[in-house]
Design brief:
The protein is α+β, with helices and mostly antiparallel strands and 444 residues long. The protein has helices spanning 19-29, 46-65, 79-83, 86-92, 118-128, 174-195, 241-245, 270-279, 307-323, 368-378, 415-427, and strands at residues 33-35, 42-44, 69-70, 76-78, 97-102, 105-113, 137-146, 161-171, 201-204, 216-223, 229-239, 249-251, 257-259, 261-268, 286-287, 354-355, 361-362, 400-403, 406-409, 442-443. β16 and β17 form a beta hairpin. The chain has 2 domains: 19-279, 2-Layer Sandwich (BirA Bifunctional Protein, domain 2), CATH 3.30.930; 370-443, no CATH class.
């Protein structure tokens, strides 16, 4: 008689002792990705792709607000296009996958499977740019690239094919192109800190580690729990080298022809891997509320005599939560730009001073002077000690910090609840120190 099969429940590996195996188990059991049959590739499952879509929603809104337009260029790049920029050829040639046949016929020219898109986007920019009025031109595309690296497959960190976004811009002068480079780097930092809850460091790459052909490469990197630094986004000032190679020129106001300055910037799904590596633990996946596909899960637990009552209550609670607005998740899509703004404050109309029975002035509870007197009397004339509620980041976005692999929302309560707590703080009521909102942790 065969032994019964044992079922694995939860995470069996340790993040502290075997982070590589632990990470692979979390990604697989959380339903983010699976390994493809060919080495170096993964299958992104719906939950994992939903996280990538939410990153797209944030960046697309910021890009559109700063004049970027989305486009799409071919997956295959002719070899002659790659050879026009020798640094691109030297930098990517060992990793380029080539297409040499179509069916049984050999192609007249080899086609590279897109390792990066400078060599296919810049020639078209040279056709579309004629005068200074066409500048700056800002293009972005969401796509996949293939780099045939001989490394072990690690979902979202090391794969031969990966998803990313790459932006390409052309400018009149160096100052404009450099400003663009720093703007995109700041947007990537903002995404990591305010959306992914990952602290990052900004810096410039040394000469041997720059993007091939770039004048300056700036990057953001975050420290992973295993002690390694993760680079998930870069921004490059390319100078005028690519523009000269692909003849990107424009006629300025002086009616003379000038060479444009270009920049490129990109972020890959390594950011997802860094988020999982940082916030998940031995209990499983933990995500920021800004990206979590499911923010609340109702789990009914009953006994034999309370089954129907508990199920009915759980169903009513789930219906109530479905009808409630998403408070913790920033608005998605281009038609919405509030990104977590608090509700408008309700205006209170003052009734003016009231009179007592003897005709004297009776202070109203809406009188600001009386409210100030009550606050001072209740707190002994000074403010209570304790940490003030921390402000939110720019554009009213919630600020985050990571503590013991959990997320704590530093934004606090909103609307009337927030105002009520602050008033109680000023009045010196005991036990009213600001506490993190319980919805600041979304565990799946």
């Amino acid at each position: 008689m065969s032994e019964p099969e044992t079922q694995e429940l939860g995470i069996t590996e340790s993040k502290e002792h075997s982070p590589g195996k632990w990470y692979a188990e979390v990604v697989r059991k959380a339903g983010l990705a699976d390994y493809a049959p060919m080495g170096g590739f993964i299958v992104t499952r719906p939950r994992g792709y939903a996280l990538w879509e939410r990153i797209q929603d944030h960046l697309d809104g910021w890009f559109e607000n700063t004049g970027v337009q989305n486009a799409y260029f071919p997956l295959f790049i002719p070899e002659s296009y790659l050879e026009r920029e020798k640094d691109i050829v030297e930098g990517f040639d060992p990793e380029v996958a080539w297409v040499t046949h179509a069916g049984n016929d050999e192609l007249d020219e080899r086609l590279a499977v897109r390792p990066t898109s400078e060599s296919i986007i810049t020639p078209f920019m040279s056709q579309w740019i004629r005068s200074h009025r066409d500048l700056p031109m800002r293009l972005n595309q969401w796509c996949s690239v293939v780099r045939w690296e001989a490394t072990d497959t690690k979902p979202f960190f090391r794969t031969k094919e990966f998803l990313w976004q790459e932006g390409h811009t052309a400018h009149r002068d160096e100052a404009s192109a450099w400003e663009e480079t720093m703007l995109r780097l700041d947007q990537y930092r903002r995404l990591h800190e305010d959306v992914l809850a990952l602290p990052v460091r900004e810096g410039r790459k040394p000469e041997h580690d720059k993007f091939p052909g770039a004048h300056t490469t700036a990057a953001i990197e975050s420290l992973m729990p295993d002690g390694r630094a993760l680079q998930s986004a870069t921004s490059h000032y390319l100078g005028d080298g690519f523009a000269e190679a692909f003849d990107v020129t424009y006629v300025d106001r002086d009616e003379n022809e000038h060479v444009a300055h270009t920049a490129s910037w990109g972020l890959s799904w390594r950011a997802l891997g860094g988020m999982v590596m940082t916030h998940a633990d031995d209990q499983g996946l933990s995500l920021p509320p800004t990206l979590a596909p499911e923010q609340v899960v109702v789990v009914p637990i009953w006994q034999e005599d309370t089954r129907e009552e508990v199920l009915e209550y759980a169903a009513d609670l789930a219906a109530e939560l479905d009808a409630a607005p998403d408070r913790d998740r920033p608005e998605r899509g281009r038609r919405r730009r509030s990104h977590g703004r608090p509700p408008p404050r309700r205006r209170v109309r003052s009734r003016g001073p009231r009179r007592d029975r003897r005709g004297g002035r009776r202070p109203s509870r809406h009188d600001p002077r009386e409210a100030l007197r009550r606050r001072r009397a209740g707190s002994g004339g000074e403010r209570p000690r304790g940490r003030e509620p921390q402000r939110t980041a720019g554009n009213n976005r919630p600020a985050w910090r990571s503590r013991q692999n959990r997320l704590v929302w530093r934004g606090g309560l909103r609307g009337r609840d927030q105002g009520r707590d602050r008033r109680r703080d000023r009045a010196g009521a005991p036990g009213t120190r600001h506490r993190p909102h319980p919805r600041g942790v979304c565990r799946l």
